[in-house]
Amino acid sequence: MVVMKTRPVHALCAAALAFLFCTAAFPFGLADQAPAHENAVGVIVPLSGRWESVGQKILRGVLAAGGVFSRGQASNVRYIIRDYGASEDSIPAIIDELVREDAIVGIIGPVGERASEIACGEAQKHGLPAVMFTQAEMTSGEGTCCFRNFLTIEMQAKALLDAARSMGITRFVIMSPDDHFGRTFSDRFQRLAPAFGVQVVKTRVYALRKADYRQELTALFSGLGKTSVPEALLIPDSAQNAGVIASYLSYLKMGHVRIFGPTLWDSPEFLRVGGRYVEGAVFLSGFFLESTSGHVRAFIGTFQETFGAQPSVWDACGYDTARIMQAFLDEHRPSPAGLRAYLAGLRGFEGASGKTSFLPDGGLEKSVHLLTVRGGRVQEIHP
User: Fold this and answer.
1) Alpha-carbon distance 106 to 98, whole Å?
2) Half-sphere exposure of residue 219, counting CA atoms within 13 Å on the CB side?
3) Whole-model pTM?
4) What are the helix (H) ranges across 252-361?
5) How many domains does the chain have?
6) Cβ neighbourhood burial of 24 (10 Å; 0-12, 13-18, 19+)
7) Least crowded by CB within 10 Å, which of 36, 62, 135, 249?
8) 262 and 164 share a domain?
9) Does residue 238 share a domain with residue 187?
10) pLDDT tens digit string along 154-186?
11) Has residue 17 got a pLDDT over 60?
């Protein structure tokens, strides 16, 4: 069952699921008020504002996992959906209300570093387990109620370094944008590199606006001795910017250098902008549409049949998070403490977004897809 609270119906019609929610054919309860339900889970996501599209995708994944539109047996979990829009400071009040009026036993969401920090503090106060979507490393500890189900920057850095080690690549240079993501990714990569037998021989930071990539690359590669010639270049930037930088590498006759990058490169823009210059690039994905995994293929089939669209990593993470909670709540007497203990002990959950394990201190272990470009197509690199 799905309950949408404090959201007018016309606003819902702007969401991706509008045609289902806003027709008489919608077969499930949709009301401003509903009685408390012992299997209630709050879904707190941005369905308006800057992150609206992300929130809608996570919601689609949750609804698909719950079997809301399926002809088969739906989950017994009742999802109570709340939109915090652009007001992250409203999250504590939303959680308080859901605890008081709906007796929720868990939370799915929110999205982003600050929203997750706010929600985590409130979840801890109520002893309420929450699974959030953020790349940030959350400060938790043994017995925490706060978990996350999204690839962190550290996990991505480790995956790229592990790939480099398996390819025999030992020397990197880094060219990163002067923003939070670029600085953090570069710092993590440099800190972890020695453990993988990798040396970062030089780094360069460029301004976000009006960057002269030719000049930046020339400065990055100049002055390196014979023993410091790099084999690879890490670019923790967007798919579009990385594609442009790759073309300058060839122009400056540095084509022997292989480029490595984050999940941001898993976008059609990477091939569109980079073209033949991104051949051999190594990058990551939290969800790969062309994966041969049975769990991924099954999810894609269900999702396309339900929504008539291709799922994204956000859909997949929402789907897996809901399925993880349902695996406990559909089979056990629901309680926040019971659900928290189950999440803290979760090991090797096979899902659409990979194999997921939660740790008692809130840590996350998650498999990642390693991708490359061959013959103008993105392909998965299998270990």
Assistant:
1) 10
2) 12
3) 0.86
4) 268-274, 294-307, 313-329, 336-344
5) 2
6) exposed
7) 36
8) yes
9) yes
10) 999 999 999 999 999 999 999 999 999 999 999
11) no
